[in-house]
Design goal:
single chain; mainly alpha; 3 helices; 48% helix; flat
């Protein structure tokens, strides 16, 4: 879409990358060993060629992030979007 300005060209923050991710979550307090096992099993499943092909039909890129990386990425997005909401004076009302 050559005639549509980028976010930066439209006055938004420079270098803004908009993407989302979907993750499997568990209740707070899950023992680390159980979280690690679930994470390993999910990573193994999304590495399967059939599963990867299914993801491709939705333009999803499977990422085998660790639980710590998921938390880190969620915090980054929370801070970024929180700042955009504050700067834009956006509210639910």
């Amino acid at each position: 879409m050559p005639n549509v300005p980028t976010v930066a060209e439209a006055g938004g923050p420079q270098g803004l990358e908009v993407y989302s991710f979907v993750s499997l979550v568990a209740p707070k307090g899950l023992p680390p060993a159980v979280a690690a096992r679930i994470n390993a099993d999910v990573a193994k499943a999304i590495a399967e060629p059939e599963i990867r092909a299914r993801f491709d039909t939705f333009a999803f890129e499977p990422l085998a992030w660790s639980p710590d990386e998921i938390r880190r990425q969620a915090e980054i997005k929370s801070q970024l979007y929180g700042e955009l909401v504050r700067r834009g004076n956006i509210s639910l009302e």
